[in-house]
Amino acid sequence: MFQKVLIANRGEIALRIIRACKELGIATVAVYSEADADSLHVQAADEAVCIGPGPGKDSYLNIPNVIMAAIITGAEAIHPGYGYLSERASFAEACEASGLVFIGPPPSAIEKMGDKAVAREIVRHAKVPVVPGTHGAVRSEQEAIKQAQRIGYPVLVKAVAGGGGKGIRLAENPEELSRVLQLAQNEAMAAFGSPEVYVEKFIPDPRHVEVQVLADSYGNVIHLGERECSIQTARRQKMVEEAPASVVAPALRQKMGEAAVRAAKAVGYVNAGTVEFLLDNKGNFYFIEMNTRIQVEHPVTEQVTGVDIVREQIRIAAKERLHLSQRDVQWRGHSIECRLTAEDPDNDFAPSVGKITHLVLPGGPGVRVDTHLYPGYVIPPYYDSLLAKIIVWAEDRPAAIARMRRALEETRVEGVKTNLHFLKRIIDHPEYQKGNVSTQFLRRYLRNGTE
Known about the structure:
Structural class: alpha+beta
Shape: globular
Number of helices: 15
Mean pLDDT: 94
Radius of gyration: 21 Å
Distance between the termini: 53 Å
């Protein structure tokens, strides 16, 4: 096992990783920007190194500074968390070249799954269902129109190197496809440095269901079941997640889990990863992408399986074998996570920054809060708007919903605008309570914060 690990991230996920390291007896090194000097993860780590000014590109995305911080503090491994450098194959390679262990998948797996067109082809050959679409990036407008006619409208134009909902456009007909193609390419270039896009069939009103996998260096790959992540904003930012998905029966869970394992094996995957699917109303599921990192919403899986996924990540990176087989994985109860963000739902979820003047976080039986907040904390303007993840567990979904309602009612955050009231409206909505959700839920029932 490692003696010292550097955490190349900030906020709640940095704290989450530090806690896992401490429970494993591993010393920790935090890195931070000048804007994060007073952050909790800096205080919680055994050592801390400032790696640059506030903007992420000058600090948390500065690979030479992160690597140097690990070297001068004697860290043996780097955990990237999510976002930032977590899915950059070049960073994983830089770690290896510097004699550091990257706590994540091999660079080759990141590269293959990072190219959405390549990933589609790889998993298709592994007999994982994919949404009908082009085989690779489209090379011209004429080719895009020809392929769309073959697939059938409506279609989605998606960035090959996409993620986080960026570089995705819907086209209902050839004229619209011609118009959005260039927009998608421009957005993809700005967000990912590559203008390549591909075209796939639009699945109406799907659910977003993802499967957590764990893989060690000895060829053992298991899945920990699914998460329902259908409650998303128009920008495809997830707001409420839960495990298990209310519509996934044991037989479908096994089928999706086995498909996720095949996808992971097809790219030689090692460590924790998530295979994302669209699930239609007939029970058909289609591969979207694989996220080659820990997910924001991993706690709901931890709550229903009892598996500490971050701890497993570290053990796997230390060349330990998986501590459990597929047969050992059991699911118990129901878990829901709400993402509390510094955003104004009445203003198109515009970010809000400022000082937290009053803070009360929920507690009691079955409630877990992953956060970096404290009273007096000043939210910097440079980073993600996530303030806290409020996670509940109960014996079944109705009890978990009741517990989440109680937890949200206990929560108080003053000084900045948040989405707290909006989260309450989701949880209280009759269609959510019936499990009648899809990726169109917010647009259909709570558009612009009004029903």
